[in-house]
Every structure is written in C-alpha cells, then in structure tokens.
Amino acid sequence: MSGLDDQIKEIEDELQRTVYNKATSKHIGRLKAKLAKIKEDAVQRAMKSSGGGEGYSVKKSGDGTVVLVGFPSVGKSTLLNQLTDQKSEIGAYAFTTLTVVPGLLEHKGAKIQILDIPGLIAGAAMGKGRGKEVIAVVRSADLIIILGDVYNGIHIDVLMKELYDAGIRINTPKPDITIKKTGNGGIRLNYVGDEALDIEEVRSILAENKIMNADVLIRGSISQEDFIDAMIGNRVYVPAFIAINKVDLVDEKTRSEIETDLTERFGEHPHMISAHSGYNIEELKDAIFDHLGFMRIYMKPVGGPADLEEPMIVRSGSTIEDICRRLHREFVEKFRYAKIWGKSVKHDAQRVGLQHTLADGDIVTVVTRF
Ligand SMILES: Nc1nc2c(ncn2[C@@H]2O[C@H](COP(=O)(O)OP(=O)(O)OP(=O)(O)O)[C@@H](O)[C@H]2O)c(=O)[nH]1
Ligand SMILES: [K+]
Ligand SMILES: [Mg+2]
C-alpha cells in the first residue's frame, strides 16, 4: 500500500469508529474535509500527470450527450451499435474500445449524442487505465448510463465510488452554498432556511482548507459533504441511471434477484436489457429521453396547421419565454401572448404569458405585434 492509501485508510477507519452527535460533529467535519482534500489533491496530480497521452476530443452535438460508463466488456459498444447506426468494435476481450466513439440516437424528435468509451476500472479516478481521459469525457456529459452486466451488477458501487472520487455527483442538485473569502473578520455564517450546520462545524471544515476569514451563505438543507464539495469546488452534478446488460444469459429468477438487489441498494429500478438481442431497448430510449429532462413542443404558426413532424426539444420546466428566445429574440421583444393546446392548460387555445411553464407535447402559437 502506498503512503497515500495508508493515509486515506487511517482517516476512513477513524470516521467509521466515530459516532456522529453534537459533540463529535465538528471533529467528523474536519476529518471528512481532510479526506476530501487528500483525495482531491491526488486526483489533481493524476489529471496533471503527462502519462496516458492526449485527451479525447469529442465535439458535443445534438440536443444532449449521454455517456455509457461501465467495466470492460459489459457491452457498451454493443449497446452503442444497437442505439445508433455507429459501428463500434465489439470483442470478447477487455479494452476492445480504446477511444471515444460517438453515435447519434434520434428518438421522439430529439437528436441525442451517445458516447461509447473505454471500460472504467477501480482506481480510474486516480488515473488508472486511461482513467484521466475517460473521466474528463464523463464529467462533460448531460446524462450518465451506468452499465453493468448480469455477472457484475453487484459491483456497481465500485463504479459509483470512482465517479464520486472524480468529483461527479449523480442525481443530486447542486447545493446552494456561497463561500466568499475575506481579509479578516473570521467566519461569518448566514442561512436562508434552516440552520443545516453549526458555526463550529463550518469553521473546522474551512480551517482544514486554511480558510480563516470568509462570508458563508447557505440556502436550504445541506450536509457536511455538500459543504466540503462547495469548499473544494470542481464538482459536476449529472443525472444518471443504472442499466444491466446481457439478461438473455440468465434465467428469470437470477434476473429478478439482480433487479431486487440493485433496487434496494440504489432506490431505483435498474433497466434490465440485452444490447445483443434488443430486449427492452425501446424502453431504454424512453428512459434516456426522460432522464435528459426533455419535452417536445410543437409550433403552430398563426392561422396555419401545427408542425407535428419536427418538435422543438426543450428541457422540462421551460417557459414560453425560453421557446421565444430559441425562435428569435424579436419574439420576446414583440411578444403579445401565446396560445396553447395541451397538458399545461385547462382548455384548448388558452392564452398565456411569457412566464407560462410548458408540458411535454404542448402545441404553441406565439402571437407578436406585427
Ligand atoms: N449474450 C450477450 N452478449 C453480449 C451482450 N452485449 C454484449 N455482449 C457480448 O459481450 C462482449 C463484450 O461486448 P462489447 O460491446 O465489446 O463490450 P464493451 O463494454 O464495449 O467492452 P470494452 O470496450 O472492452 O470495454 C462481446 O462478446 C459481446 O458480443 C448481450 O446483451 N448479450
Ligand atoms: K470488449
Ligand atoms: Mg467497447
């Protein structure tokens, strides 16, 4: 074991031994901050090291980018080929794919870029097995599919840990924390909402990063981990879901055991698929569309029929104003009202304003001054 591993293990052991309560919270906060700092420094060193060659250059395209993350040979390339018309090399041996292979999935009117990447292995966050280049691609994705197969579904948490260590936070909103360093005055703490951490915890965590003077603003409920993330920075917040491939190779009983186990551990049903036979692939496409937070909006020109062929793909929660900006900025300036047919309104052709929030499948007419 290297000195680094020893150091990490020592802190992890102490954390495990220490029971969390009011009296220990400060000490625990400090230990966690120390651990996070050591890991982040190691990750940064790995990312800077020259070994491993050039980073992959893939240009993002389409309405969103999805990356297939998994151990070697779980079937990432087979899945890419099933979802898109790309032909990524498939092989019954580890590390068949040595670079990033992009493909295009067109689903429900959305153009979705899918990235097949080399297999991820334990230690990837610290640069093992081209980890440096692979992690950089994963960090920039709009959605991560964590792909396992029926033989290694049990080890999905190893992948999760690598992503975590690489500063990737999955399925969590970015905590609303501002830390503004100041020249003096010590640590000043302000809350909007409940007092999530006390001043002593905040002080000891910041001290671990040698921050002695700062104005801190916390909105909403947060954990010590969230605060440490905000302090260290360099975190990305990405949605993700789990899919388990090669279900054609096991019987019904094994399949449902894997499914139950993963659902219990991660709180969400994994998608059970066969990239080879195409089993559940249409459902997987729907899941990709939904997890990207996409909606389809159909435009209907004034007095004309709606264009039901090519929807505009927008993020859920989008408003009329977002649509107008996408069309042309004049649409916002000269906006009078919009008319909607669909789920976001009570009756057809209802008039709404710029702040109206749309729903998937809505038909929209924008009426402007001349
Ligand atoms: N039975 C079965 N075999 C599959 C399935 N998907 C992939 N395979 C096989 O699994 C092996 C690995 O598939 P790949 O697509 O190369 O896996 P990969 O994850 O891209 O592998 P690396 O690029 O090496 O990391 C190949 O022999 C595939 O034919 C599946 O759904 N069912
Ligand atoms: K392979
Ligand atoms: Mg591959």
UniProtKB/TrEMBL annotation:
Q: Which GO molecular-function terms appear in the entry?
A: GTP binding; GTPase activity
**OBG-type G domain location, by residue?**
64-293
Q: Which UniProt keywords apply?
A: GTP-binding, Nucleotide-binding
Query: Domain TGS, which positions?
Result: 293-368
- Classification via InterPro entries: Beta-grasp_dom_sf (IPR012675), DRG (IPR045001), G_OBG (IPR031167), GTP-bd (IPR006073), GTP-binding_2 (IPR031662), P-loop_NTPase (IPR027417), Small_GTP-bd (IPR005225), TGS (IPR004095)
PANTHER family assigned to the protein according to its UniProt record, in alphabetical order = DEVELOPMENTALLY-REGULATED GTP-BINDING PROTEIN 2 (PTHR43127)
Name of the featured protein = GTP-binding protein
- What is the organism field in this record? Methanofollis fontis
Q: What is the lineage of its organism?
A: Archaea, Methanobacteriati, Methanobacteriota, Stenosarchaea group, Methanomicrobia
